[in-house]
Amino acid sequence: MMNIHRWLTALLGAYSEYTWLFHGFLTFLIAAFLYWLQRKVFKRLLVRCQQTSYVWDDAFVQALFLPVSVLIWLFAITLFGGYTLSDFHYDAWSLLMSRIRVGGASLIFIWFIWRFITQMEFRLVRPVANRKPMDANTVFVVGRFARIGLFIVGVLLLMDDLGIPLTGLLAFGGGGAIVMGIAAQQLLANWFGGVMIFLDKPFRLGDWIRSPDRNIEGKVTFIGWRTTQVMSLDNAPLYIPNAVFNQIVIVNPGRMTHRKIDFMIGVRYDDVAIVKDLVKAIEAMLKQHSKVDHSESFSAHLMNFGASSLDINIACFTRVTSSPQWRDVQQDIFFKVIDLVREHKAEFAFPTVTTHIPDKISIRGDFVHDNNKK
Would you place residue 374 in the very low, low, confident or very high pLDDT band (cuts 50, 70, 90)? Predict the structure, then answer.
């Protein structure tokens, strides 16, 4: 061992001008060995973590693998650069390499946390056999807040590592925040609208919503910082600013326990003799219908003597709440009512006007015509 040490010392002494090359070769050799070793270790760790019931362990290993690889080569490159520049007496550049190494390590750490948040989001919303998935909207919003805080911390750490004073930046940031707040009022309103969607939870991803105030109806496919995407009935995406939801009424049929079917039909006055039997038949049909919730009120009543019809009101509740299925149930009840009207030999009324013509018609003016005169 001593002979090897003497041989290396003699070799370096003989070729002292190439010491930086030896340091570089040794540094990259060690880096290559560490890279190979960490790949082996991480593969074994990942296999073991995937066999556990925990969510965080395999997310941690998946998130850590690539940053550690980059960190190894960052240290190798910056150490080699520092040795080389120091040997050539570029001390200022050598110090810069040291700062790049420290700043890069900070950025890689932030990158690892960012990847860990992403991996956790993916695993928490994914259905697993022994675990119920969490609400996707909650997971993604919490992840966004975590990323914003992580980004701010990362910028501050990087500036501190590079020797940039933070006092002036914080003072400038306070004044800049006021200016930006004035200039971006609508943007901030949309951002806070997104926060209120997260806190109040009037709807979630996948919910079918509609607004009686605006022409908005469809499935919620994305909730972002500024806008929410709703896929309409004709598969046209609607991009709605989040601030709008603070000013309009939102109906979320997916959270309804029941949905009402309420409509009016009109039969002729000539069918007055069978109206009573028709009303009873419609009510019996509702009582036997499999989609009508009989624990809620349901009825068929003669409601009004219209100008040209006898108006019958039909109302019931169904447990089907989604709009397409609810329309199918309502349509089925419509068809059954039509069949009952036909069975009772009745007809639906339509607006009519009766005109009475007297025997004599006189028109004021110079001309008078009498129908009795031949």
Answer: very low
